Amino acid sequence: MSTKHEQILEYIEQLPIGARISVRGVARDMQVSEGTAYRAIKEAEAHGLVSAIDRIGTVRIERKQVREIERLTFEEVARIVEGTVLGGQEGLNKTLHKFVIGAMRLENITRYLDPGSLMIVGNRENVQKLSLEAGAAVLITGGFDASPEVRKLANERELPIISCSYDTFTTAAMINRAIYDRLIKKDILFVGDVAQTEGLAVLSRDATVRDYFRVVEETGHARLPVVDSNQRLVGVVTARDVAEARPEDPVELFMSSKPTTVSPQTTVASAAHRMVWEGIEMLPVVSHRKLMGVLSRQDVIKSLQFMNRQPQVGETLEDLAVRGFSSETCEQGVRVRGVVTAQLTSALGTLSTGMLTTLIEYAVRECLRRQRNVDMAIENLSFYFLKPVSIEAEISLTAQVLDFGRRFAKVEVDVSGEDGQYAKALVTTQMMER
């Protein structure tokens, strides 16, 4: 039987999009304490089922699809610009496709307006009306209000009209920055994106060892999740666990009752690291204690291979740090060369420790990719010594493999320049096949 917490989450998920939710109302309808209702609503918010909106309250929203992660909803726009919703609250969960700055003549604006657009404009009521009539939401800059007529039109069209105190340029820059951050996140794979969720090979809690071998023969999977009648994960059983068991013995006696699991929000890189570190081929994917799917090592490898073929759509801090550096194969391993730019320095005008660590990690990754065609995650980084590196200094980082194991590598990195040796570090990594 599901818990009260799970029942509340199921109740919230069944509510229509746009329905208002309150702690007191949920507590009354589900006959639970307000504390229990509050915790369940907060978890629903974390999973994208509801959202708290200023002056409106908590409402049921449509869960954002992974394929639209680079898109923003109008509600998120209002939060980014610290705006106030003046009308059209019913359309806050709609997705922003593009934004238009209304600094042009009225007759030229219509060609840029499409349904799903966001018009960023000041106190120009005629532009506000024209935008709403064309199916575009409106963001009023400069702290101006909207007339009752514009508010009424926004409510009729279910298109948000938002007011913020920033100027037009600052507002557009804030929205653009948010979209850019979303593009970077799009490059990050999560377990929920790649895990197997259909046709799962599982065993019930009352299954026998005979049932285990039958499922293994049918599916080819030797590591199987064990679930109860409510699809809650209660354990994992492997061939090693039942090697000496009799066919009629229940698998519950031999399974691992506290297996390593991941959630759909766990990154694939983190899950892969756990697989390598603990030497397991499959991880159950669990949400609210229920089994949502499984992640195999083959899923991880395929997803990483797929991402390696995709074009980069956003730059991380690591991308910016290594932008001016080139790498080449040398006798020791790999050498990375470049110049210390102002963006890499601390307030004292020397190469910051964080950026140096990023460059060392980049050199190690290039070395392992070229020599073994593997990806890696750093386990430990130790400096033998460290000297300041001044701005505009030309440096080279030489990465040399000292030891290779089945799942690990030790790499030494030497950082030097015209003034001699700046740093020397030993990096221990966990590896996985690409």
TrEMBL record:
InterPro entries registered for this protein in UniProt: CBS_dom (IPR000644), CBS_dom_sf (IPR046342), Diverse_CBS-Domain (IPR051257), DRTGG (IPR010766), HotDog_dom_sf (IPR029069), Ser_kin/Pase_Hpr-like_N_sf (IPR028979), Thioestr_dom (IPR006683), WH-like_DNA-bd_sf (IPR036388)
Pfam family, any one: 4HBT
Source domain of life: Bacteria
Keywords linked to the UniProt accession: CBS domain
Domain CBS: 196-253, 255-312
Keyword Transmembrane on entry: no
Gene3D superfamilies hit by this protein: CBS-domain (3.10.580.10), Hotdog Thioesterase (3.10.129.10), HprK N-terminal domain-like (3.40.1390.20), Winged helix-like DNA-binding domain superfamily/Winged helix DNA-binding domain (1.10.10.10)
PANTHER family: CBS DOMAIN-CONTAINING PROTEIN (PTHR43080:SF2), CBS DOMAIN-CONTAINING PROTEIN CBSX3, MITOCHONDRIAL (PTHR43080)
Official protein name in the record: Transcriptional regulator
Upper lineage: Bacteria, Bacillati, Bacillota, Bacilli, Bacillales
